[in-house]
Amino acid sequence: MTDQTASLASFTGEEAQKKLRKRHRAERRFRAYGVAAILFALAFLVFLFTSIFSQGWSAFLQTSIKLPVEFSQDVINPSGNPDAEDEIFRANYVKLARAALYKQLGIDAEDRKVRRDANKLLSRGVDVQLRDMVLRDPSIIGKTEDVWLLASDDADALLKGSIDRKTPSDRRAVNDQQVAWIDQLVDKGDMEKRFNTGLFVNGASSNPETAGLGVALIGSFFMMLTVVLLAVPLGVCAALYLEEYAPKGKISDTIEVNINNLAAVPSIVFGLLGLAVFINFFGLPRSASLVGGLVLTLMTLPTIIITTRAAIRAVPPSIREAALGVGASKMQLIGHHVLPLSLPGILTGTIIGLVQALGETAPLLMIGMVAFVVEYPTTPLDPATGLPVQIYMWASSAERGFVERTAGATMVLLAFLIVMNSLAVYLRNKFERKW
Amino acid sequence: MEAKVEDRPAMTVEQPAEPKETDDAAPAALGELKIKATDVNLWYGEKQALFDVNLEVFGQSVTALIGPSGCGKSTFLRCLNRMNDVIDICKVKGDIRLDGEDIYAPEVDPVQLRARVGMVFQKPNPFPKSIYENVAYAPRLHGLCATKAQMDEVVETSLIKAGLWEEVKDRLDAPGTGLSGGQQQRLCIARAISVNPEVLLMDEPCSALDPIATATIETLIDELKENLCIAIVTHSMQQAARVSQRTAFFHLGKLVEVNDTSTIFTNPSDQRTQDYVTGRFG
């Protein structure tokens, strides 16, 4: 022992100082690596967000034209019978909108070419817009009212600057005449970018200006509801049993390994499973959000079980002993102490699982949720899409309006994810026992 | 540390344990026989932790269980209220009787038993609830109090008995975990005695406390023993000498010797006990 001590280098000499400096340098370098890694990740995040926001913010604005539309009885309801719903439903509303536009622009309705150019300023969705107004309030028939009608994708693109005015007229989607009309309308204040409510309420459409996330939002909501109602109770009960009751042995080890394996299974495989089991075997309808929710439940279960088990395991053994020591039964121990103490962890895990499920696309493609759904789904058995699937579908469309909508929808999805994650943090802090 | 002892071979497992029981010599100060453990063997999986332990614990007195780390004294203590049941791999054989009734009989509910045999742990472990709720928890669990007034009374008496009432009576709604270590331990004692147990098991209740808090708890133990049968595991021989009337010395899973505390510390009959109490090992 003494010999060894003697042979040790001194702590004070020149050599030792050098070693110490080297050690400090290594320490600083190590810290710098960490900072660099964080900066690198942040840079990517900033890049991602800038690119999405710069492309997507314009999706929340949509160009509309204010036109005094005459809801002519002759066009809408020539029979004069207010109960003739079919007639009202099939009326030629486009004609009304166009007539109003010609009047507003002061152009000759007889010239076919001029007429055609003018028609291109209006969206193809205006008929639905006017029809809905009439169906909502039939007393409007026979009156003239100012209506903000959707402008076409091209007019919208010009206003948003994605069509360059400097491009020669023949290579531009809007010709000089149309540009002049648009400028005329804008100057009068009859054409402007307004908040795009349609993005949140409309269903699928082949026209970008009338396409919206309505169906996707409802589909995603139904799916999340299914996941919350199924995965949370199942996952928490499974975790409680495995952690508190199951005898430790080969069987519980196997189950544990397999749960971890399930968490790592690619999501598309769950989609295949859903297709084979829920649709082909149980005969549930295709494209239904219930099936989507079931598949996402299967996918989320392992996450919830694993995080819940971790949360349960983190309950201090001293509290268990204390409860058992005063004569609490196992169930009372769980109900009074284990669950309340692990609640923040369970909530966090659940929300993280939900966030994962909300952003999941691949399994939904497999069960046919990549569909063109115009009508709102009223039950989880109706065809629907989901937010990420809608993004996927829009991303594969070429129109300029769809490009910005893809980014816009991504922003909506990101907003949901951020809100849910913040909720997870908030709940964890709120329920965490600080004493 | 025990490896330093010279007569180590004498303490190997093969050596049959010969607990020197001195029942008849028990002084009149002890109460009636409360717990009688006969031939208790205990295994953690393959490993045997207790070998043929025979011990009697008397009412209105304190029995101290002493011995080096890992000698099985805590394990034995936990047998007395079946706290070992919750450990999957733990297997207990033998006969333990509380007032003549076999506590390991199939018809005995461990939950009920633990209300009769309370326990205080090494680390103060109040629930993360208010002081009031900590004490009221057990009576409520067993449905002992019908009215709020009754509950208030139970909480007050328990806290008074635990010597904590004066310190906390104005802040019963404050979190129990906000108290100091010694106060927390007294709160745990109040919680344990709130259901009027017949026996109180204490597993090194002072090992996490400073000397002043320890002294308070020791005084408390002295008062509590008037109505209770107390078994205390302790690492401190001074503490055993101070608070207990009888002392049992455990070594390597065997009960080496049990006798009046004064006898154990002044005139032990076993060499190992002598070595331990004189500080030659452990």
UniProtKB/TrEMBL annotation, chain A:
<feature type="transmembrane region" description="Helical">
    <location>
        <begin position="215"/>
        <end position="242"/>
    </location>
</feature>
<dbReference type="GO" id="GO:0035435">
    <property type="term" value="P:phosphate ion transmembrane transport"/>
</dbReference>
<feature type="transmembrane region" description="Helical">
    <location>
        <begin position="262"/>
        <end position="284"/>
    </location>
</feature>
<dbReference type="Pfam" id="PF11812">
    <property type="entry name" value="DUF3333"/>
</dbReference>
<dbReference type="GO" id="GO:0005886">
    <property type="term" value="C:plasma membrane"/>
</dbReference>
<feature type="transmembrane region" description="Helical">
    <location>
        <begin position="338"/>
        <end position="359"/>
    </location>
</feature>
<keyword id="KW-1003">Cell membrane</keyword>
<feature type="domain" description="ABC transmembrane type-1">
    <location>
        <begin position="217"/>
        <end position="424"/>
    </location>
</feature>
<keyword id="KW-0813">Transport</keyword>
<feature type="transmembrane region" description="Helical">
    <location>
        <begin position="407"/>
        <end position="427"/>
    </location>
</feature>
<feature type="transmembrane region" description="Helical">
    <location>
        <begin position="290"/>
        <end position="312"/>
    </location>
</feature>
<keyword id="KW-0472">Membrane</keyword>
<dbReference type="Pfam" id="PF00528">
    <property type="entry name" value="BPD_transp_1"/>
</dbReference>
<protein>
    <recommendedName>
        <fullName>Phosphate transport system permease protein PstA</fullName>
    </recommendedName>
</protein>
<dbReference type="InterPro" id="IPR035906">
    <property type="entry name" value="MetI-like_sf"/>
</dbReference>
<dbReference type="InterPro" id="IPR024573">
    <property type="entry name" value="DUF3333"/>
</dbReference>
<dbReference type="GO" id="GO:0005315">
    <property type="term" value="F:phosphate transmembrane transporter activity"/>
</dbReference>
<feature type="transmembrane region" description="Helical">
    <location>
        <begin position="30"/>
        <end position="53"/>
    </location>
</feature>
<dbReference type="InterPro" id="IPR000515">
    <property type="entry name" value="MetI-like"/>
</dbReference>
<keyword id="KW-0812">Transmembrane</keyword>
<keyword id="KW-1133">Transmembrane helix</keyword>
<dbReference type="InterPro" id="IPR005672">
    <property type="entry name" value="Phosphate_PstA"/>
</dbReference>
<comment type="similarity">
    <text>Belongs to the binding-protein-dependent transport system permease family. CysTW subfamily.</text>
</comment>
